[in-house]
Design a protein that fits this description.
two-stranded antiparallel ribbon, two-stranded antiparallel sheet, 6 strands, 55% helix, elongated
Length: 296
């Protein structure tokens, strides 16, 4: 085998075969990547901090979707009852078990150690579009998960979220919430639409999300913060401040927004900006009187 013979394309390589031989140029197996000699080698790198934060972001988003759907579908969102607390707790358990199961199913299986191929550019998420056509004839298929395990791990996590939601939530709704929390089961139905859509968005835009998730976190935090306060009927500065401090639900939402904002700041390593986490909430409360239509 002439190792100086290059494989066409950006991602085509030769897989090792028995008897110290190599395959023809093609796609590397899952968990393998091409080296500078166009030989596929097994990925044994550890996840970098940015990759771990990216995976954490993909855990946070489904969790926020669960919380939003529970909050949206209950007719008494201002009353933080025991049943609603159980629904939130169930969402925590579902997401936690899904994350645990996803890690255990990733090579090396049943281990908390995750091997990675790393990410060098956004094109690593879209190897399908870089299949070469030598001589402009037959296309050589070299599509692979170059960013292993960032694609399959997240999709397995989404599928696990749906599985545990269907496993636990109906039992909880039937036993504890049926006659006490109206429309609680709708959160499950909406979730069955939300997660396939979320998986589709990730499959299509995973590379863009990877390089922009810190800023997406900050934008989501600010948007949810504005939406939360805008839903208040009384836009008086004093009333906004009092309700923010006296309602458990409001405190959880506001602190959650601060944590999400801080998560985005930590991801871009601008730690001095952590002091800005409360700014969106404080800014809205102070300036609400200037945008209240009742004042004009």
């Amino acid at each position: 085998m002439d190792f100086d013979t290059k494989c066409p394309g950006y991602y085509c390589g030769r897989m090792p075969l028995p008897n110290d031989t190599f395959s023809d140029c093609g796609s590397c197996d899952r968990g393998w990547k091409r080296n500078e000699k166009y030989i596929c080698v097994k990925c044994d790198e550890k996840l970098e901090l940015y990759d771990l934060l990216f995976l954490a972001f993909n855990i946070i988003v489904p969790f926020l979707i669960h919380l939003f759907l529970i909050d949206y579908t209950t007719k008494t969102p201002k009353k933080f009852s025991k049943e609603i607390f159980l629904l939130y707790l169930c969402a925590v358990v579902e997401v936690g078990l899904s994350a645990l199961l996803s890690v255990l199913l990733t090579d090396p299986k049943f281990s908390f150690e995750i091997h990675s191929c790393g990410v060098s550019s956004i094109s690593d998420f879209y190897t399908y579009f870089f299949n070469p056509s030598p001589g402009y004839e037959k296309t050589l298929i070299c599509t692979q998960e170059r960013v292993y395990p960032l694609q399959t791990l997240v999709l397995i996590f989404y599928a696990s979220c749906v599985f545990f939601m269907l496993l636990f939530r109906p039992i909880l709704n039937e036993r504890y919430c049926k006659n006490k929390v109206e429309r609680a089961s709708l959160a499950v139905y909406y979730g069955l639409y939300a997660f396939p859509l979320l998986a589709l968005i990730y499959a299509v835009a995973g590379g863009f999300i990877y390089f922009s998730f810190p800023y997406i976190s900050i934008i989501i935090s600010c948007a949810v913060n504005a939406g939360h306060f805008a839903m208040k009927q009384d836009q008086d500065t004093k009333q906004l401040l009092i309700s923010s401090l006296t309602s458990i639900r409001n405190v959880i939402i506001i602190v959650g927004n601060w944590l999400l904002f801080s998560f985005g700041i930590v991801s871009i390593k601008k730690y001095y900006l952590l002091l800005l986490a409360p700014v969106p909430s404080v800014f809205y409360i102070i300036t609400a009187k200037f945008t209240n239509p009742e004042n004009y």
